[in-house]
Amino acid sequence: MRDTAENPRADGAEPVAEGRPARGGPVALALRSGGAALGRRFRAGELGSLPVVLVLATVWIIFQSLNANFLSPRNLSNISVDIVGTGMIAVGIVFVLLLGELDLSVGSISGLAAAIFAVLNVDNGVPEWIALVAAVLAGTAAGAVQGYSCAKTRVPAFVLTLAGLLTWNGLMLAVLGTDGTVNLDETGLVAKLTSYYFTNDAVAYGLAAVGAGAVFTISYLDRRRRVAAGMRHRSMRYIAVRTGAIAVTAFVSAYLLNRFQGLPLALLIFLVVVAGLDVVLRHTRYGRQVYALGGGVEAARRASLNVTGIRTAVLAVSGTMAAVGGLFLASRITSVSQSSGSGLLLLNAIAAAVIGGTSLFGGRGTTWTAVLGMLVIQSISSGMAITDTPTAVQFVITGGVLFAAVVIDALARRSQEAHGRA
């Protein structure tokens, strides 16, 4: 699978003919160049995140017109916290989808991790941080076992993880025992994951500045590396305009969050985790191996990649993120019960990854796609709640958005195959 960063004309390279003076200022030139590049990307099936951004904007406009409180600082702050638990699980799903596989056990693993933490800490008096580490490691172990089994038996992951769904759910029920529900300490470490806010305005604005600076630095260093190697690269105008757009979004978000209670700790942790895993995927040898394996198993074997190790690691990441997500979900309601990890959790996590733009065919997607997809799903849920819309309508709308995302993914792949990029 060819990374879009290797194609400057798809990512904002500046196609100005030699000898012809560029008209307009730098911003106008960058916009014209970006518009032309965008058209080429559409024709080649490289849609990026634009479709989901348009869907998100449409959802926000519709619900804001129905209820003026939808885009209020309070509601946006609540949305930013509500996306974290399921969003963490969706980020793990992205890794599995990049292989062209599907993990159906993440819901049960999240419930099992939450149950292990609650029983160790509340029922047995184990210190919170030890119980938390044990819960996360349990998710890692469950995912690694499934990944190794899939790699060795070559059974599709969705079949084996379906068995895992039942196994881990049964183990969760056994861990909880006859009590059924365990209430967490509302002043404890895990409870504060979703209840603590940085009330100092400088924290939110500082995060916005650091984020925008990191985007520019990474893009600039990548460009310089490609220039030195004689490879195709993005133009500085494109990098500047892209960084500016991200900076505006970040500072507006910080301003709105500060108008309520400040930056939520849960959102800060979520963004740091997503950014860190994005660097792992796109800037490390392991990440390149994941994309390569998603592009074709046989080709990966012939390239001497450790297919067993990669599959095991990917499912281990999925299990780890499911456990972390389960702890955040338990933190949100400060309790763990026999229904933890069940219901629509699995479907929402998968839908978030797919709606965000991760391909079901493998080899295309980033961790940020899970964030965008989760924003769409949670915005729909919040909008339905704030406008007193029946839950049935919410299911229909979310299902329709997911269907559209799958169709767009299939059409994009067909276009890529026609242009020799799939």
Can you describe what's shown?
With 422 residues, this protein is mostly helical. Helices cover 72% and strands 2% of the residues. Helix 2 runs parallel beside helix 15 (367-386), helix 4 packs across helix 13 and helix 11 (285-295) crosses helix 13. The radius of gyration is 22 Å and the shape is globular.
Characterize this entry briefly.
The chain is mainly alpha-helical and 422 residues long.
- Average pLDDT confidence is 85
N-to-C CA distance:
6 Å
Q: Can you write the helix and strand succession as a string?
A: HHHHHHEHEHHEHHHHEHHH
Structural class by helix and strand composition: mainly alpha
How many helices? 16
Cα radius of gyration in angstroms:
22 Å
Amount of beta strand: under 5%
Q: Largest beta sheet: what is the strand line-up?
A: 1-4
Record keyword descriptors for this entry.
422 residues, 16 helices, two-stranded antiparallel sheet, two-stranded antiparallel ribbon, disordered N terminus, 72% helix, 4 strands, mainly alpha
Please specify the SSE layout and strand pairing.
Layout: H1 26-43, H2 50-66, H3 73-97, H4 106-123, H5 128-153, H6 157-176, E1 181-183, H7 189-192, E2 197-198, H8 201-228, H9 236-258, E3 263-264, H10 265-283, H11 285-295, H12 297-302, H13 307-333, E4 335-337, H14 345-356, H15 367-386, H16 391-418
Antiparallel strand pairs: 1-4, 2-3
